[in-house]
């Protein structure tokens, strides 16, 4: 894990929680609010928060194209919850004109489980992480409705709905590994920077 | 793969997703859409903003469910709504409506002058006001998933918000330097649950997200609260009682993201039109102060 520096998009949302996990893993991290903050980073995490807010701020400060270029350069990018929405090509139940990065060939439904009273925790089988199951926290969470040919499902709910996908060096989870003590997803992401 | 709902993690987790954001008071669908388009991370559905509650007087209660549903229909971001302190039936109604967060708020007329709601009985998370660490930890002890410093709502004057933020954060700083054997006496002194005092000392911060509220009227006010160490900002009357709500709402959202960058703050503070007219707290009669409500 040495010698990598990871950016966390810090426009709005739970970016400190991701930074805290990275610190625990001994990985230095940088808060990204402007395009110049992307320099010299080996990977980027787009945290949970409100996807409409994060999208508007990214647009306003000229970050959309630099973020796309960052991902196209082959460096890993991981979106959790709102971050997954931003990475998606297509969003159902979004706000019309909501700015997206459109990097992953997936269709995501926003607030797919309903309102906050329907938010939940559950144990998920994630084969790439091995045993035990991953305790996942879903907060007003999105789900993945369509997975394109290039993307691979990493985890699904019991009814088969995909909630974690990978497309090459791009990773998206509908839940929040930064809210539990389990660092395996962060380790998995960091290993993509190698 | 059993699903657990309404857990502390899920309740506190939503508050964590709101961090670094602005929660705006709105009184109808149109204002809610303006707030969402400006980048608000949530809206607070109200019948009257605090400045009007102040001006009109009388008993302030939970908003008409019709009004709250209209706002929930209008936007995709989380919708909060206020109930009176201790009025657990208003809270039950708000939970049944499906609001995403309940604010047990001193801005409304209290329904119980001794007890707050037992918030652990609910699946929906609660935010509560606090003026100091003891009050914040008592609310967390009752199950609040988020705290907001009270400030003095509806005044457009940030001085009380600063006072309460400094009180909470200063007391936490003091706590982190305390020997463990001093914590029981300190818990007694501030009237807070001992376990939460110990947890706060260990974390060096409140165990839940802590927003600023009550008097934020400008981008500079919002950035001030962020630099003091708050996790985000509530703006009540400050937006829709100003000359150009759209512009001001956008500017305050930008200010909370770039709170540490004076050059950007200077740029976004330009030409925002008239801010809301403020009130000097020292000229406010004691019975009109909202922050003293809550126990």
Largest interface: A-B, 46 and 41 residues
Portion of residues in beta strands of chain A equals 25-35%
SSE order of chain B, one letter for each helix or strand = EHEHEHHEHEEHEHHHEHEHHH
The CATH superfamily of chain A is known as Class I glutamine amidotransferase (GATase) domain
Distance between the termini of chain B: 41 Å
Task: Please tell me what the overall shape of chain A is.
Answer: globular
Largest sheet of chain A: 7 strands, mixed
Q: Which strand order do you get reading across the main beta sheet of chain A?
A: 2-1-3-4-12-11-10
* Tally of individual domains of chain A: 1
- Stretches of chain A where pLDDT is under 50 for at least 5 consecutive residues are none
User: Multimeric state of these chains?
Assistant: heterodimer
Quote the average pLDDT of chain B: 95
Q: Which consecutive residue ranges of chain B, at least 5 long each, have pLDDT under 50? A: none
Distance between the termini of chain A: 9 Å
| Backbone structural class of chain A | alpha/beta
What's the CATH topology label of chain A? Rossmann fold
Largest sheet of chain B: 8 strands, parallel
Structural class of chain B: alpha/beta
Shape of chain B: globular
Helix and strand pattern of chain A: EHEEHHEHEEEEEEEEH
């Amino acid at each position: 894990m040495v010698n990598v520096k990871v950016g966390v998009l810090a426009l709005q949302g739970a970016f400190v929680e991701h930074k805290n996990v990275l610190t625990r893993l001994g990985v230095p991290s940088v808060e990204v609010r402007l395009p110049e903050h992307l320099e010299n980073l080996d990977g980027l995490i787009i945290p949970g928060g409100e996807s409409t807010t994060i999208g508007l701020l990214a647009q306003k400060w000229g970050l959309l194209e630099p973020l796309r270029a960052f991902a196209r350069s082959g460096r890993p990018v991981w979106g959790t919850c709102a971050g997954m929405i931003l990475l998606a090509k297509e969003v159902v139940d979004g706000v019309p004109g909501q700015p997206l990065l459109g990097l992953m060939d997936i269709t995501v439904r926003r607030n797919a489980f309903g309102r906050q009273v329907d938010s939940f925790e559950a144990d998920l089988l994630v084969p790439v992480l091995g045993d035990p199951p991953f305790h996942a926290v879903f907060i007003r969470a999105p789900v993945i409705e369509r997975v394109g040919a290039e993307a691979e499902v990493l985890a699904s709910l019991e009814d088969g709905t995909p909630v974690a996908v990978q497309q090459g060096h791009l990773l998206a989870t509908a839940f929040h590994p930064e809210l539990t003590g389990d660092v395996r997803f962060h380790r998995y992401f960091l290993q993509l920077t190698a | 793969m059993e699903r657990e709902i309404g857990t502390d993690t899920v309740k506190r987790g939503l508050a964590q997703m709101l961090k670094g954001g602005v929660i705006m008071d709105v009184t109808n669908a149109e204002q809610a859409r303006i707030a969402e388009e400006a980048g608000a991370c949530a809206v607070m559905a109200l019948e009257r903003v605090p400045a009007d509650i102040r001006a009109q007087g009388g008993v302030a209660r939970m908003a008409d469910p019709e009004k709250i549903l209209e706002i929930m229909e209008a936007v995709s971001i989380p919708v909060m709504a206020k109930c009176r302190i201790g009025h657990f039936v208003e809270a039950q109604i708000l939970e049944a409506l499906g609001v995403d967060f309940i604010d047990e708020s001193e801005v409304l007329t209290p329904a119980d002058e001794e007890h707050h709601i037992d918030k652990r009985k609910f699946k929906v998370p609660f935010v509560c006001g606090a003026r100091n660490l003891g009050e914040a930890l008592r609310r967390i002890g009752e199950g609040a998933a988020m705290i907001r410093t009270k400030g003095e709502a509806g005044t457009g004057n940030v001085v009380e918000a600063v006072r309460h933020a400094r009180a909470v954060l200063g007391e936490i700083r003091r706590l982190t330097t305390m020997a463990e054997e001093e914590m029981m006496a300190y818990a007694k002194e501030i009237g807070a649950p001992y376990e939460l005092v110990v947890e706060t000392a260990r974390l060096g911060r409140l165990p839940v997200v802590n927003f600023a509220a009550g008097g934020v009227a400008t981008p500079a006010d919002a950035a001030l609260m962020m630099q003091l160490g708050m996790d985000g900002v509530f703006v009540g009357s400050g937006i829709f009682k100003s000359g150009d709500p759209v512009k001001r709402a956008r500017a305050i959202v930008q200010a909370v993201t770039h709170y540490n960058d004076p050059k950007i703050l200077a740029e976004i503070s330009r030409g925002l039109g008239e801010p809301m007219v403020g009130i000097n707290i020292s000229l406010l009669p004691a019975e009109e102060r909202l922050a003293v409500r809550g126990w």
